[in-house]
Amino acid sequence: MRPFLPFLALLCLSASLAEAQSGRAPRVLQNPQATASVHPKPLTRSQPPAAGPATLIQHGHLYTVGPLGTLNNADVLIQGGTIAQVGPNLVAPDGAKIINASGRPVTPGLMASWTQIGIDEVDLVAETNDTTANQKLDSAAFDVADAVNPNSTLIPVARIAGVTRSLTAPSACGEVFCGTAAVLHLGFGPDLIVKRQAGVLADLEPTGGTKQSNSRPDIWAKFRETLEDAREYQANRGAYHRPGGGRDQRSFRIDLDALAPVVQGSEPLIVRVDRASSIRQIVQFTQANRIKLVVVGGGEAWEVARDLAQAQVPVVIDPETNLPASFSDLGATLRNAGRLDAAGVTVVFQPQSNDPSHYARTITQIAGNAVANGMRWDHALAAITRNPAQVGGISDQYGTLEPGKDADVVIWDGDPLNVTSAPTAVFIRGQAIPLVSRQTRLRDRYRDIGKKNPPFAYR
Amino acid sequence: MDGKAPLWGAAAIVAVTLLLAWAIIPRLHSSAGGGATVSDQFRNDQFPSTYKPRPSRATILRGATILTGTDQELANASILMENGKISAVGLKVPEPPGVVVINARGKFVTPGIIDIHSHLGVYPSPSNEATSDGNEATKPTTPEVRSENSIWPQDPGFTRALAGGVTSMEILPGSANLIGGRSVVVKNVPSVTGQGMKFPGAPYDLKMACGENPKRVYGEKGGPQTLMGDVAGYRAAFQKAVEYREKWRAYWKTKGDRPDRDIGLETLALVLDKKIPVQMHCYRADQMATMIDVANEFGFRIAAFHHATEAYKVADLLKKNHICGVMWADWWGFKMEAYDAVPEGLAMVDHAGACAMIHSDDPIGIQRLNQEVAKAMAAGRRMGYRISRAHAIAWMTRNPAYALGILNQTGTIEKGKMADVVLWDSDPLSVYAHAEKVFIDGALLFDRDNPKMSPRTDFEVGQEMNFNTGGAGQ
Q: Which helix (H) or strand (E) holds A393?
């Protein structure tokens, strides 16, 4: 599918154009950051978790991925959308629904990172694909939060496989700044966004081929200049708006505004980069400029593991990528995850990177393969729960089985990281998720193909 | 040479077995030619295989769980490989003097994995314009091209696939065109030429494509622009081939004026003669049904529908027409015609009694087809089907061998077949399993425990970063 991306970029409507056509008020009026001189702290919770009846999961084999460690034959009490208690022999409140996990594994809901869940339905159907900015200039202001569709069929497909959160970010764009990420929960809508402005994606790998539009020095020159502009602009925002007050800046104001949390160090710069030397370069740059960095892609990250660990830079990788797909990936190896983890790097997994959104359910297979190639099992589970919670800035509400956290809880019919396993129950923010998707409905229409009555269209 | 007489005996048994297999096993690639002699047929051997099996030592894998690919699971069994062939399988296997004995207790043995849909070598790594040789997207019908003429044997992807237990694959042209060209079956062995990989005796296939891709590529370049345009395109091409074949048949009969040779129509004439079956890229149920009618109109044979995301909707039709369904475990949604895929699809086609199998179409996916089969099996079981792992194994071994017309030679663990065999360190339908040793024609070509037996391609040699990896992407 990768080869189609340039084609897609041509066809995609920009979010702003779509908005103009929808007749809604321009976003800028509703967005405090555009008029306030001090950038507000981004909202970390869209709303309090929905209330629901209490549920007690009993006799589970709990992988809490938190301070409680692994608990055999223990219980989880879910009340009002959050986890109320975790431990052995909990007492069910009156009226609580009781589920006997019978020793099965129980984990936090899983989080898929650097997906386009919520902003993509069918890649090649342009009006359903809001993953990439449709402009040649930098687009830090391209904000995925403007496009999130809570009715996307990708969401039930992912969540019935245990994926309850997504760090939804733009696709790599071939330009320097690709847009602003958000964190979603994958439960019931209408509001799925649990965190806006969860970082800005920059793509520092060249587009490649003879049609390459940018070489590395081009990219770095633009990259430095834009960040410098954003810093200057933030320092003297009022002056910019006075006639003749702003110096010539290459970027639009909305892009400079979108970069505010990055240059202020409150949200990460999410940088797509594969080549070891480029990773080293971006680590040094962000350290010198006090910018929080998250590396995504990271094909050769293992070679820079010590630098990444020292600088406390998390890395989002698809650990199955072991091909020299480009000259930036010559060192790609199945050992990437294990080596990074052993060096003390915070490792986060992306589902199969050829389509991490539709294939979000491969996140467990991805983690299992990391284990098969040298990563500790419990660390691999952390790479799809606690670690992405940290990268997405939602550790206060999600990522472990702990009292006070949102009740994203999954009961599994076997080892959660094995390809033959699946959830038997999924809770997102306390709500029991029916294990139904458009795919299960289609399956049930055709499951007895010999029986023509009733015909499929009436099933 | 004291083994001469027993060897003769073994050879005789092998020959008889092969003959029996030839007689019993249903064949897609029948040699229908109407009694024609060599001089009055279209030639089909311009790029002959130069593959020679690598040297091998007689080897026995002792005490394994053997999944034969024929729906059988043999516990605590052994397999003897001699002279590139499987010479014995079962609970009691003799140990000839000098044989290499490998203790496989607690481990698993399967036939080598066969990927019926790969673009390794034609869309290799690294992927760039110089290496992009999979689609002759200059006109919608290009039966004159052959993927074998595009293969870059130094594609590092081959070594990764080998480490995943893949011993044979079909390499197809891409799907930009209605008729994309000839596919070729190769053995997954290091070679400086594509011909050196070419599976000896494997029939060619013709790659054709339904649906969105040809429309997308040609919609604004003169067409086809619609599905009806797609179908008109196939029919026009085959009508030309019918007429071309007529001309040559007349010439062979009467020795009148010699017709001009047309390389593309020659391939299509061989398709009409059923010497080259069609491997048909087709996602949607309705399009598969249409293609069955087109094939019937012209009398060609569709071996399998590839990608077949909606095969589960017409599994009965596939069964009735003896056409295999080639599917992914869980790919979906990247375009409209893939929107209705379900993870149970492969199991549903299998359950309906049609021939079903996995494929990768991807240089990452090809490395773990065992896991893809495991996912498809698990999805089927969860909807209530009883699917043994011994049966599921056939989705990546026997069934692709059948659809490629090479089941006589490989695809199952049976006496007399090519010793294309994988030793797994644990249950291959687990995410944690590794192909530990991979044998092709009895020769050990990958050994996870011996770094010297992880092949590297020329492209990787001298690359500082690659040097620091374990080879074969490990």
A: none
How many angstroms separate the CA atoms of A41 and B463, rounded? Answer: 46
Could you tell me where the beta strands, DSSP code E, fall in A238-319? Answer: 269-273, 293-297, 315-317
DSSP state of A25: P
**pLDDT tens for each residue of chain B, 474 residues long:** 333 444 445 555 555 555 555 544 444 554 444 445 546 789 999 999 999 999 999 999 999 999 999 999 999 999 999 999 999 999 999 999 999 999 999 999 999 999 999 999 999 999 999 999 999 999 999 999 999 999 999 999 999 999 999 999 999 999 999 999 999 999 999 999 999 999 999 999 999 999 999 999 999 999 999 999 999 999 999 999 999 999 999 999 998 999 999 999 999 999 999 999 999 999 999 999 999 999 999 999 999 999 999 999 999 999 999 999 999 999 999 999 999 999 999 999 999 999 999 999 999 999 999 999 999 999 999 999 999 999 999 999 999 999 999 999 999 999 999 999 999 999 999 999 999 999 999 999 999 999 999 999 999 999 988 777 778 878
Which residue among B160, B371, B473 places its CB closest to the CB of A365?
A: B371
The 8-class DSSP code of residue B288 comes to: H
Structural tokens at position B343 = 């993870």
Task: Tell me the chain B residues in contact with residue A419 when contact means C-beta distances shorter than 8 Å.
Answer: 371, 374-375, 378, 429-431
Residue A223 to residue A140: CA distance in whole angstroms: 11
Alpha-carbon gap: A12 to the closest alpha carbon of chain B (Å): 14
Strand partners, B447: B437
Half-sphere exposure of A180 (CA within 13 A, CB side): 24
- By Cβ distance, the residue of A323, A439, A456 closest to B364 is A323
Distance (Å, rounded) from C-alpha B3 to C-alpha B88? Answer: 17
Q: Residue B164: count other Cβ atoms within 10 Å of its Cβ.
A: 26
Would you kindly state where each structural domain of chain A is located, as residue ranges? 2-43+110-396
Q: A321 contacts in B (CB within 8 Å)?
A: 364
- The answer to whether residues A196 and A261 touch, using CB atoms and an 8 Å cutoff, is no
Round to whole Å and give the CA distance between B281 and B299: 19
Render B341-400 in DSSP notation, one character per residue: --TTHHHHHHHTTS-EEE---STTGGGGHHHHHHHHHHHHHHTT----HHHHGGGGTHHH
Facing A325 at nearest CB: one of B126, B434, B465: B126
Residue A297 tokens, joined: 């892609």
Inter-chain residue contact A422 with B382, CB threshold 8 Å: yes
Tokens of B272: 């009409």
CA dihedral A235, A240, A242, A248 (to 10 degrees): 140
Distance (Å, rounded) from C-alpha A299 to C-alpha A321? 7
Using a 10 angstrom Cβ sphere, with 0-12 exposed, 13-18 middle and 19 or more buried, the burial of residue B201 is exposed
Q: How far is B41 from chain A (nearest CA, A)?
A: 40
Q: Can you name the residues that pair with B77 across neighbouring β-strands?
A: B64
Dist CA A402 CA A407 (whole Å):
9
Shortest Cα distance from B261 to chain A (angstroms)?
A: 36
Q: Report phi then psi at B34, rounded to 5.
A: 65, 40
Class of the domain covering A2-43+110-396 = alpha beta
Q: Say if A455 is an interface residue toward chain B (CB within 8 Å).
A: no
CATH superfamily of B4-467: Metal-dependent hydrolases (3.20.20.140)
Q: Are A122 and B335 an interchain contact pair (Cβ–Cβ within 8 Å)? A: yes
